[in-house]
Design goal:
The protein is of the alpha+beta class. It contains 11 helices and 12 strands. The protein has helices spanning about 5-20, 30-35, 80-85, 90-100, 115-130, 165-185, 200-215, 245-250, 285-295, 300-310, 325-330, and strands spanning about 35, 105-110, 150, 155, 220-230, 235-240, 260-265, 270-275, 315-320, 335-340, 345-350, 355-365. The strands form 2 sheets. The protein has an 8-stranded antiparallel beta sheet with strand order 5-6-7-8-12-11-10-9, with helices on both faces. The protein is globular and about 70 Å long. It starts with a helix and ends in a 6-residue tail after the last strand.
Length: about 375
């Protein structure tokens, strides 16, 4: 199998962590979702087609709660539906396309306009959670429609007008079918008998987010994936929390938070808890700022406060130092290492200049200490 296919499968495995069947839009899979423009002079803004009526798409209010979903949590039926309706022939067609594709990237005669992309995001959430479907499948050969994917040439062809909602739904539906089909090739790793299970991992992750960020994730979409790493094949749980219908929130420019938690499957120890703010604008740290930070004890005090008060650590601290690394400076992060007397340690990542927690990483003491 080609390396590009392996990249797709890897990306799909990662998408499973984020819980989205159509997560290709957020995590661009090279030869599935990334489009390169082949006609620079193609028009970039288009009048709506008068020949096709479009259903009204209402963007969500910018006042949508960041953490809570009122009422019953949305449930997606896409996977079950595709399990029932996709034929062996349809799936084989996708496998043949992926396995025989010669291009690393798909191309298109133009990019989607910003407005088209925003409508597509809203429609995708409606496709996943509200059962909205296209009336017809995406054409895969020329001559049927002015909008189609030429599977033989790896080329998307867009009309010289704005895409209709029906066409955007065909686009969403096609990628749902591709992702669903390729997911069949992923062999999910399973925890060993001594490892903690999914429900325990979710509970530990929820508790950690609540402790460190005072966030209630009980009404957020929760996803968990298990993987083994290294020669010793040590298992880890990766848990992701995010609001429902984040694509609609993105289309509206609405703020929201997501949380990622990594847990050692054997010990059940949380080793990484991170907050993700898609709208956050980082402030890179200059060399002059760096000097001032190293002379400012409040950064270390803020890090200690996270470990002692938020995390609830009771073991004695041996040493606390600001980590010097240009990568942190570029990311606008002040990282503080807090070493405990028993040999374990924490890395506390604080956003500059706010001193707000971005991430807490725990490194247990080596065996025998």
């Amino acid at each position: 199998m080609k390396n590009t296919t392996k990249n797709i499968l890897t990306a799909l495995a990662f998408c499973a962590v984020s819980g989205g069947l159509l997560a290709f839009n957020a995590y661009a899979v090279p030869n599935i979702a990334t489009l390169t423009q082949t006609k620079p002079n193609a028009p970039q803004s288009f009048a709506a087609s008068k020949s096709q009526e479009k259903p009204v798409i209402t963007l969500a209010s910018s006042k949508v709660p960041m953490l809570n979903v009122e009422g019953k949590a949305p449930v997606s039926t896409v996977k079950d539906e595709l399990e029932r309706t996709m034929t062996v022939e349809e799936m084989q067609q996708i496998y043949n396309y992926v396995d025989n594709s010669k291009n690393e990237f798909l191309t298109a005669n133009r990019q989607m306009s910003d407005q088209e992309s925003k409508r597509r995001q809203v429609l995708e959430d409606q496709y996943v959670y509200d059962g909205v479907r296209p009336q017809n499948k995406l054409p895969l050969t020329p001559g049927i429609s002015s909008f189609y994917f030429d599977m033989g040439k790896d080329v998307w062809v867009y009309p010289d007008r704005e895409l209709t909602d029906e066409e955007l739904l065909q686009y969403v539906d096609w990628f749902a079918r591709v992702n669903f089909t390729l997911s069949k090739r992923i062999e999910e790793q399973q925890p060993d008998a001594k490892d903690i299970g999914k429900e325990e991992a979710l509970a530990k992750a929820s508790k950690s987010v609540s402790k460190l960020f005072d966030a209630d994730v009980s009404k957020m979409k929760a996803s968990a994936a298990f993987n083994k790493f290294g020669p010793e094949q040590k298992g880890k749980w990766f848990v992701h929390f995010q609001p429902y219908k984040t694509l609609t929130l993105d289309a509206n420019g609405s703020a929201y938070m997501m949380y990622d938690v990594m847990i050692d499957a054997l010990s059940g120890t949380v080793i990484d808890t991170t907050i993700v703010n898609p709208a956050y604008k980082k402030t890179p740290i200059t060399s002059e700022m760096n000097k001032k930070i190293r002379q400012d004890p409040s950064w270390i005090e803020a890090a200690k406060n996270v470990v002692l008060k938020k995390q609830g650590e009771t073991r004695a601290i041996k040493k606390s130092t600001i980590i010097q690394d240009q990568l942190y400076d570029k990311r606008g992060v002040v990282a503080v290492s807090i070493e405990l007397k028993d040999g374990s340690s924490y890395t506390v990542e604080l956003r500059y200049p706010e001193k707000t927690l971005r991430c807490l990483i725990y490194d247990p003491a080596a065996s025998g200490k």
